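Input structure tokens:
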């Protein structure tokens, strides 16, 4: 499958190396919190992502709090609600999301849970 454009991602630590590798092999522009500052606070991660127009991929529900209750600006957030998922399961979820929704998630706040993706349109 050829995607119309590659997306730019900032992958949070909890998402894992398998997903990072999958995204790179799929032709996306990927930076990782692990390589930048593994102890970075969520607000710093969001700020970096905005400055580089990157979508944050995270397992951390706190990003919803930051975006909706604190009003933090974002360039897109994808929260993976995959409790106890292994690396392969995370890759499969991200693959499914990109295959079905790549053209609709850029700049959006998205939550993937129970095999379904919710995309907030603000």
């Amino acid at each position: 499958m050829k995607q119309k454009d590659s997306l730019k991602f900032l992958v949070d630590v909890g998402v894992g190396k398998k997903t990072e590798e999958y995204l790179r092999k799929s032709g996306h522009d990927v930076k990782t919190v692990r390589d930048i500052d593994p102890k970075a606070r969520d607000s710093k991660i969001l700020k970096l992502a905005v400055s580089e127009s990157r979508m944050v991929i995270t397992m951390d529900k706190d990003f919803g709090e930051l975006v909706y209750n604190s009003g933090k600006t974002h360039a897109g957030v994808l929260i993976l609600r995959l409790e106890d998922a292994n690396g392969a399961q995370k890759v499969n979820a991200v693959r499914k999301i990109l295959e079905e929704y790549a053209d609709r998630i850029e700049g959006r706040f998205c939550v993937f849970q129970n095999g379904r993706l919710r995309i907030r349109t603000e």
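The mean pLDDT is 93. Residues 3 and 102 are 8 Å apart (CA to CA).
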